[in-house]
From TrEMBL:
One of its GO terms (biological process) is cytochrome complex assembly. GO terms for cellular component: cell envelope. Residues 1-19 form the signal peptide. PROSITE patterns: PROKAR_LIPOPROTEIN, THIOREDOXIN_1, THIOREDOXIN_2. The keyword rRNA-binding does not apply. Residues 332-481 form the Thioredoxin domain. This is Redoxin family protein. It comes from Phocaeicola plebeius (strain DSM 17135 / JCM 12973 / CCUG 54634 / M2) (Bacteroides plebeius). PANTHER family: THIOL:DISULFIDE INTERCHANGE PROTEIN DSBE. Keywords: Cytochrome c-type biogenesis, Disulfide bond, Redox-active center, Signal. InterPro entries: Redoxin (IPR013740), Thioredoxin-like_sf (IPR036249), Thioredoxin_CS (IPR017937), Thioredoxin_domain (IPR013766), Thioredoxin_ResA/DsbE_sf (IPR050553). One of its GO terms (molecular function) is oxidoreductase activity. Pfam families: Redoxin (PF08534).
Amino acid sequence: MKAKHIAFLSLSVLAGTFASCTGSHEIKITGSAKNLDGGTIIYQKSIDGMFNSQSQDTLKLNTDSTFSLTLPSNGYEQIRLFLWGKRYLGSFIADGGNYRLQIDAVATHPISILEGKNEKNMEVSRLMDELGQDVFDVLSRKGDKWGITQDTIATSVSKKLQDAVLALDEKMKGVDKDLYEKACQNTRIQTMWAFQNQLFGIAYRYSEATKQSWLKEWEKMMEFCRVNHPASTFSPAFHEVVYNNAGITYYTKEEPVNEDLKKNPNKLIFHYIEKNLTGQAQESAMALLFLRDTNEEKYDPEILPLEERFKQLYPQSKWQPLIDEAIAKNKAFNQAKTPDYIHFPDVDNAKTFKDITDLYKGKVIFMDIWATWCGPCRASFAYVKPLQEYAKANDIVLLYLSIDRPEEDAKWRKMAAHYDLMGEHVRVQEAFKDEIYTTFGNAQKALSIPHCVIIGKDGEIKFKSAASPEDMEKLKSQLKEAAQAEA
């Protein structure tokens, strides 16, 4: 599957270069880019020093591959750049002023500052980059610099992480106070994420006494990391740490809370934020909750009433225009009308997969196995229009088989309309769920989605792993072959 999407590390690494401080209210960046191989550069940026990890914009290149970008600045701001769908390029941090960059998408360090750089700030950048990679390695189990992944003693893990933070604090001295404070808080937020990761892994696998020892140490780590500090919002990992803390509070620690809140993750997290954070930390965490809902295409209708409370708390928030956009997209999704060419046949009595395909016997079926929570699945829908036209002209059935759970039924139906997925829509039933995983999954019944299948007029599978709509020429060839097979 080649559908383009941003492959964000769950840890947002500060892998770029800090620029010198000028105190200007604008950041003006010019430069050039090379070796993009037809790719597009996108970027994320902070708002008044609060990093927005849930929105992205395109860096517009001129015909000669040069660019010019002007952004507002209120103290140090952070810009992170990606080659869309391919790689993370790095970060650029500045406190106003003019800067000239060279971006080489294939270089080990893609971003070079040609004008405006500060050597000490660049050293801080390097240290942050190393820390970010170390934490990501822990989260992904690809490395363990501090020896914590196999350590079940909470006090031992927290000491190793705190020692690493304090050592970095010393190394980063020498930059101005604002940058130093933001950089120090970023190290604390990132290492807090590493600690949370260990807590989640241990709390449900070991004794109650071990669980309680981790919760006790978590509270101490909360004091050390100062999540509620305004500078914590500068970290791309801030929202992850806050939302994880909500989960630890109400599910691991089991702090009492209204059961209605526990039925909806967004309402529960919003409640936690309002109760436990203040000022800039509260504003940023709340705002990112709305943006995440849209960025991840959750479109939770129950998040809509929370906006009024946010407006009451922060009537002048610079996040509001982005929140307005997110709310508008949420409403459009939930209010979408299902066109008459999108069908949801009644399959409640289906016992086998054959019961489904027999509904369309005598026709070639193109089947797309997907789920509403699958990002690559949703990204693939950008390529369905040519397939829809071909299917209509050649009497081919488009069958979308969702593996969503029953509680996602309403969202599944809305998403079919949202993406204008012409065709037949079936959600896998418990009676033939195992058959789907056995037939189209691997030896361990693990099914990778999106997964495309072509079924012949006789109801037999012709291509168990067919081409995707993104490779339309190959898919056409396979569909023609299936159509020509004897029914």
